[in-house]
Design goal:
Blueprint: E1 10-17, E2 21-28, E3 45-49, E4 56-60, E5 65-68, E6 70-71, E7 73-74, H1 81-91, H2 93-99, E8 101-105, H3 107-117, E9 122-126, H4 132-140, E10 146-149, H5 151-157, E11 167-171, E12 183-187, H6 193-206, E13 210-214, H7 223-229, H8 232-235, E14 238-242, H9 244-250, E15 254-264, E16 274-278, H10 287-292, E17 295-298, H11 314-332
Parallel strand pairs: 7-10, 9-10, 12-13, 12-16, 13-14, 15-16, 15-17
Antiparallel strand pairs: 1-2, 2-6, 3-4, 4-5, 8-11, 9-11
Helix pairs in contact: 1-2, 6-7, 6-11
């Protein structure tokens, strides 16, 4: 397949044929003298059936290029069982766990998933125009089953108002845990999926080897948490539904809980195996978990103790702590 379009290359356009195929037309910019007509897909082009493939092809006879068509299913009713199932995956953690599947929105997330796990099970696209990036992705995944939805029905599945125009149904992967862990994150009872995604994204960037999520955490594989993580869940092993105290007790190393009161983060030696525990957005770390960890620590702040600046939010505190650990380890190297 051609690479990403540029001002000097090919310009891709997405069109559709009413009997159930999507096709991609590559119109090469003309270098012919002014006044000469550029090649177009008209009477000089035709649709060919390939007897050796389930896909049709489009042949532009003007410059003898064959471009594969993409079969799709056009769904227009909200009563369609597939659409109903997709709605459940969007809204219900229980359904995602039951089917071990979820929805991804946007080119970046789908490409990140493909890079690690291969093709999605289904692409979902809206009627009308998509972005250039979404069109290119759809073309590269032309052999994946594709569902075409009216714009309003597509919007019911997209977790954001300004979607890029492509979603995907994917399998939730099993976490591949490392044999030994010397840098871990334990997240207790985080409720906001965007916060959780951001924390997982930070953890992946800081080099955390595994993230443990307590039973009270929001679902790491919800579309909103996935969007917040921006692909972190595909590279960072995430273990959900753990007993936080049991994880701390089993960890062979220093265990530190981020709290309002405690020893300074910057007084800790973080080159040895360490697990950081972060608590709920409002309540913080539970009393049981505070009792289980080696040390409760805090992040020194200006104006500390004033109501106007009582604490950092959970995602910001996680970022500070994890990257302080990474800083110390990089200096040691």
């Amino acid at each position: 397949m051609p690479g990403k379009p540029s001002s000097t290359g090919y310009k891709r356009k997405l069109g559709c044929i009413s009997f159930g195929y999507l096709f991609f037309v590559q119109a090469k910019k003309s270098n012919s003298p002014k006044g000469e007509k550029e090649p177009s897909l008209n009477s000089s082009s035709k649709i060919q059936k390939n007897p050796f493939s389930s896909q049709s092809q489009i042949s532009d006879l003007t410059n003898s290029r064959i471009i594969p068509l993409m079969a799709f299913k056009h769904i227009t009713s909200r009563d369609n069982p597939v659409f109903k199932q997709l709605r459940k995956l969007l809204d219900q953690s229980r359904e995602r766990k039951k089917t071990a599947s979820t929805l991804l929105e946007g080119v970046h997330l789908i490409e990140a998933y493909c890079q690690t796990y291969g093709e999605p099970r289904l692409l979902i696209i809206p009627e009308g125009h998509s972005t250039v990036e979404a069109t290119g992705l759809i073309q590269r995944l032309s052999d994946v089953d594709t569902m075409l939805l009216p714009t309003l029905m597509f919007a019911e599945l997209a977790p954001v108002a300004s979607s890029s125009g492509v979603m995907a149904l994917v399998d939730i992967p099993e976490p591949a845990l490392p044999e030994s862990v010397d840098f871990a994150l334990l997240i207790e009872d985080i409720q906001d999926p965007g916060n959780l995604g951001s924390m997982l994204r930070t953890a992946a960037a800081a080099g955390v080897q595994v993230a443990y999520l307590s039973k009270g955490c929001t679902d790491a594989w919800s579309p909103k948490a996935l969007r917040g993580g921006q692909g972190a869940q595909f590279v960072l092993p995430v273990v959900e539904g753990v007993d936080a105290v049991e994880v701390v007790d089993a960890f062979a190393g220093k265990t530190l809980a981020l709290t309002m009161q405690g020893d300074s983060l910057y007084q800790q030696a973080l080159r040895e195996p360490v697990l950081f525990a972060v608590g709920n957005e409002g309540a913080g770390i539970s009393a049981a978990l505070q009792s289980a960890v080696s040390t409760c620590i805090t992040i020194p702040m200006a104006h500390q103790g004033t109501l106007a600046l009582e604490s950092l939010n959970a995602a910001a505190a996680t970022a500070v702590a994890l990257f302080e650990c990474q800083r110390q380890r990089l200096l040691a190297d």
